[in-house]
Amino acid sequence: MVNQIKKTVRLNGHTTSLALEKEFWEELNIIANDQSLSLNKLIEKIDTIERKGSLASSIRVHILNTLKARN
Q1: Which of 4-8, 9-13, 54-58, 63-67 has the lowest mean pLDDT?
Q2: What is the CATH number of the domain that holds 34?
């Protein structure tokens, strides 16, 4: 069983709970720092611009695409 970490984030004035694996949280923080964004702002950007399914899945896809673009 994969352990997920739940965090509360604020999106457009509303709080929501988001569960991701530790490795995804770590990479998401790196991406946010690289873009000079807070973690909340990056998640809000993904939610607003890129979201096509669940927020967690959209975040994972964003991370994957960001890593692929680095190589």
Answers
A1: 9-13
A2: 1.10.3990.20
Q: Mean pLDDT throughout 2-26?
A: 93
Number of domains within the chain: 1
Domain that holds residue 39: 4-70
> Could you give the CA distance from residue 57 to residue 70 in angstroms, rounded to a whole number?
20
- Dmax over Cα atoms in the chain, in whole Å? 35
Label residue 28 exposed, middle or buried (CB < 10 Å: 0-12, 13-18, 19+): buried
Q: Specify the pLDDT at position 62.
A: 97
